[in-house]
Amino acid sequence: AGSSSRRARAAAAAVPSVKLGSSDATMPQIGLGTWEAQPGEVGAAVTAAIAAGYRHIDCAWIYKNEREVGEALKAAFDGGVVKREEMFITSKCWNAHHHPDDVSKAVAATVAALQCDYLDLYLVHWPVAWQSVPVDSFDKWGGEAGGDGRGGTRFAKVPMRDTWAAMEKLVDDGVVRHVGVSNFGVQLLSDLLTYCRIKPVCNQVELHPYHNQAALLDMCKYYDVLVVAYSPLGTSVQWQKGRPNVREDEVLKAIATRRGETVPAVMLRWHVQRGVVALPKSVNAGRISANLAAATSPPLTDDDMAAIGALDKGGAGRYIHGDLPWSSFA
What we know:
By secondary structure, the protein is an alpha/beta fold. Helices cover 38% and strands 13% of the residues.
């Protein structure tokens, strides 16, 4: 057990981290994504990830698995595997919890479920407000919470300015250490930056070689807003909907073969070199370890970076919710 713990700590220390805005805080550049991790699997995945050296776990209320994630975290804390302050834990405020009265309730439910005392980072999940639902309810709308049950969305007139003020208060109250956004495009993020009192430290968006978000990445670098990639390796067949699978791309395969690596390892190294934080999701212990190791693999050449950059398909390369009118944000 002692040697395993030492190996995990060495692996964690080797993973590059990036600063969060003007603070002294940092975020590991590889984190475990928990979206689509099923009940009965996600807890074991978190346990395996911590044992492998992960110190960054990404969660969300709408993933419907925070309680199981919390059980795994508590076991790791209580067992002395890792200390709470060594972990970076993120969650997200769902669309149906944008009203200021709901923001505090939502984060309280998440902190309780995750059994982590506080969050390192809390994000506005999508820049769209839906009518409120209780935080203990998963009202169905096409598998999501906050809809009309017939495939339509119940929008609410809650300005982002009000939601963001409630997010800032969470920092004031010490419930969360940092706040950020997710799925914000250039225009939405630019607007938020004109009135925020506490600047978002990051913008989490779908990002992979077929949807490389170059313009958004440039804008975020200019304003010192970190970019975090969900679906950094593409996505499951469910969300591909007939679109090309980035993991089967011939250019990426050729680079991987030359380097003696897998395509996912090449993509994760590409993210790291762009200064992006990547959140690969897996429930397989071997792949979880391999994804973390990719962060410290040899750098890609300039030619490799250019070749991968040329794979971008713009909006056509997007997988997640790309066919829904309310989600054409980032």
